[in-house]
Here is the input.
Amino acid sequence: MSLVVTGATGHLGRLVVEGLLAAGVPAGDIAAVVRSQEKGAELATRGVELRIADYSAPATLKDAFRAGDRVVFVSGSEVGQRVAQHRAVIDAAKEAGVALLAYTGVLGGPDADFALADEHKVTEQAILDSGLPYTFLRNGWYHENYTQNLAPVLEHGAVVASAGEGRVASASRADYAAAAVAVLTGEGHENRAYELSGDTAWSLVEYAAEVARQSGKDVVYRNVTPEQNREVLVGAGLPAPFADILVDVDAAIAKGLLARGDGDLARLIGRPTTPVADAIAEALK
Ligand SMILES: NC(=O)c1ccc[n+]([C@@H]2O[C@H](COP(=O)([O-])OP(=O)(O)OC[C@H]3O[C@@H](n4cnc5c(N)ncnc54)[C@H](OP(=O)(O)O)[C@@H]3O)[C@@H](O)[C@H]2O)c1
Here is the structure.
């Protein structure tokens, strides 16, 4: 039996592996599902077992899991292809007989009313249909979705979005990773869904004010129409279909769909969640 992390070379998965090691799990008890030996090389040197598999190639998933494994299944990043990919992962986990499949979905689960949530909803249902013991880690928005884009914000003195006065209860990736570690190493999480979000919901006006305060520059929130937002995102180099998805997320934020604060994240990690101000400070370093 191993503690298995898929997407282990991604931002979130890497933090989950680091968290397991920091929690004292021996490296030999951890398996990282990665797309290539090369990508996983650094983990392998630390004694983590590599299992090479691609969600898009079901045959490669045959050796990704073993009976009794407890798995953090990090959702794929190829929007539009994830239903087939995730079904292949679930089939492989079922075939192997894993003891727990903890899936990183999206805040609100079946009630999340925006396009980006669609593939997560189908995946959760497929996991329920599989009969496997599961945990739904319904992650809210990452702080880093905003703080990784500070350079253009500082350059133009504006946070541009079409989220109106909507609030976002975001948390850091590290907090979501800590929740996954708690579920993988703890007891009593079988067949439960956690609505994971930050303790404090903030508005983009407040976010821009905090960036201004910390950077010492003039930064304001410029609320634009969804069409203008799409133009800005496409102009910044995003593929049009992905720009549409992000504009749709802003509409969801405007409706308050990413603001819910159930407290599950703080309870799971045993401490308050990291404030967005800390993520801004980190990004400004
Ligand atoms: N809550 C949020 O705000 C938010 C924001 C963005 C994304 N997400 C979701 O959360 C997930 C984790 O976030 P993240 O920041 O860690 O994203 P990320 O850095 O893009 O990591 C995604 C991981 O999934 C792996 N992966 C993608 N397609 C795969 C495939 N076909 N077969 C095997 N592995 C595959 C990637 O492998 P490689 O390392 O080989 O590329 C990577 O390790 C994302 O994939 C996405 O579903 C959530």
